[in-house]
Task: inverse folding
């Protein structure tokens, strides 16, 4: 039970947070109208676990990422960006498939993604990866690697390794039907994952895709019924609800200025994990997650320059 | 036997040239160095058979294209471009996979492509497509659809339909190992196709990928041995060699000014087919193919504005 006023204890491990999964290119249209012939797309570093690993380094936390990219210029670019924050590509596999991409239109609301998945789900279990998981305090993944083999089997194996070695596991249930093979029941599989991990942070959209439309508190209940130990349901400007099944706390948004929502959820995870690792309570860590997210929302881009966790804590009085 | 001084006769059919296969997005880096964070890529209409269908309309020939695109903004954009030259998307299937893309760096020599194949090879045999093939004078395809199921079976079926109904078939043996599934012998499959069609136009690079390095005349011989009825081997600035097995003719390049080589091969096919359909001899049609190609080489882009075939014929004195 993760009591809100308690601190979560971790084993002494070399890696604070190991994220596994999608390291990819976001290609974002330069203009809102991308119907014209000469539309330009700008290339950005992307992938939710990759963003989290980057943010954590900026917050002074020893993060690592395990991912697969193509043996191409895009893969080289992503690795260079990781190295720029001190992450060596020891756990990055270079595979013969092309580096995955997500093409996005520029949008004032939610952009409609076009997925080009190729290298990202080729990550397989290796003894090196298993060793890295054993050497971590927290393991994090999203719906991307579990949507396709062979990455799905790799995640299943790593969850078992994590359970055997008292590693905390966070899971982003960012289910999207476009990620899943047509003949596979993604909703059922994602639901089956919820009880196997420690932390889940669905957005209200994620919850609706998994359970249909319902009141936020009911959605939280559904995650708890699936065996979730700590659920944090985020609702954009309407704040968030967190519950461990016996305590439920609501959070107001800390965002005062919204330039770009891209990466806001990744910023939450980053602040939350950074705070947990630094020995703050569960409740304080959730608040710090929202503070880092509010800071990120003021700037454009999925990964922005972040000051120290202490500075952000002071800025948002959490 | 396609004698060089003879005219090829066609049945009276509604469609002059039906191209089948890749209709996709070319994403081309704005700068030669695409290592930087803020690299932009420009989006262009692309896919070799799509370029040929576009060119043919500009040359006043009734072309059609059968292809599969995604139900996404990129697919909509491609369809709009086809409609701009009068091609209605009757034979364009909108599938649940993403519209295929090729990402290219800007290069003064040959750019290195990164392939994102998804919708393009989902094209299947339908009675509507079969009817369109039966209603055509010429059928054209490249290595893209034959590299992957289900499009491969569709092409095999359409070649049979073409044979039964006296439709001439052109095949671009643009073999590239990146197009083929790793466990499939693409070279052997492409070779098996050569004898089933009427016209093949390998570049010297294509020939080298299929047969290894050799003298141009030897490469032509190898295509003839595989059963090719008319081989046109192009060698860039070194011109071309064409052979029907008993007659062999060499062609000098007509290009005087080279701004961009993208789409030069597609321009050849367009001029060649346009000329054949207009009742010119085989040799004159090959010359007109090189004239249209030379005209295209003066401008940037795969599909450029083309004057009438007669104007180009006059410009290059062929």
Result:
């Amino acid at each position: 039970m993760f009591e809100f006023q308690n601190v979560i204890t971790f084993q002494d491990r070399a890696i604070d947070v190991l994220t596994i999964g999608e390291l990819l290119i976001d290609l974002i249209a330069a203009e809102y109208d991308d119907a014209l012939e000469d539309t330009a797309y700008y290339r950005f570093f992307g992938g939710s676990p990759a963003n989290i690993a980057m943010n954590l380094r900026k917050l002074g936390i020893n993060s690592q990422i395990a991912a697969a990219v193509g043996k191409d210029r895009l893969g080289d670019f992503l690795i260079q960006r990781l190295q720029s924050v001190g992450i060596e590509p020891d756990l990055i596999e270079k595979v013969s498939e092309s580096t995955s991409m997500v093409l996005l239109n520029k949008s004032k609301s939610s952009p409609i993604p076009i997925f080009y998945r190729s290298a990202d789900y080729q990550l397989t279990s290796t003894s090196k990866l298993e060793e890295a998981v054993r050497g971590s305090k927290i393991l994090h993944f999203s719906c991307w690697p579990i949507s396709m083999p062979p990455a799905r089997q790799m995640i299943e194996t790593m969850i078992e390794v994590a359970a055997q070695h008292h590693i905390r596991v966070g899971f982003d249930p960012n289910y999207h039907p476009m990620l899943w093979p047509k003949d596979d029941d993604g909703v059922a599989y994602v639901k089956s994952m919820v009880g196997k991990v420690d932390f889940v942070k669905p957005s209200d959209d994620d919850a609706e895709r998994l359970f249909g439309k319902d009141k936020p508190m009911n959605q939280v209940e559904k995650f708890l019924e699936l065996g979730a130990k700590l659920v944090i349901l985020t609702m954009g400007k309407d704040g968030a609800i967190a519950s461990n099944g016996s305590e439920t706390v609501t959070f107001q948004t800390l965002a005062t200025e919204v330039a770009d929502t891209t990466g806001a959820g990744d910023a939450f995870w980053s602040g939350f994990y950074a705070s947990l690792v630094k020995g703050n309570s569960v409740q304080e860590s959730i608040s710090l997650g929202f503070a880092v997210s509010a800071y990120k929302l003021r700037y454009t881009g999925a990964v922005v320059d972040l000051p120290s966790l202490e500075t952000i804590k002071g800025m948002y009085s959490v």
About this structure: The interface with chain A takes residues 27, 30, 34-35, 37-45, 70, 72-74, 76-77, 80-81, 96, 98-99, 101, 103, 105, 112, 114-116, 118, 182 of chain B (CB under 8 Å). The longest strand of chain B covers residues 63-70. Residues 24 and 46 of chain B are 5 Å apart (CA to CA).
